Amino acid sequence: MINPHETLKSVSAQTRHARKSGARLLFSGVGFSLAYFLDPDQGRARRQQAMDYLSRARQVMASAKWVDENAALTKFDASAPHVAAARTDFPSDGLRMAR
Question: Is 0.85 topped by the overall pTM?
Answer without folding.
Answer: no
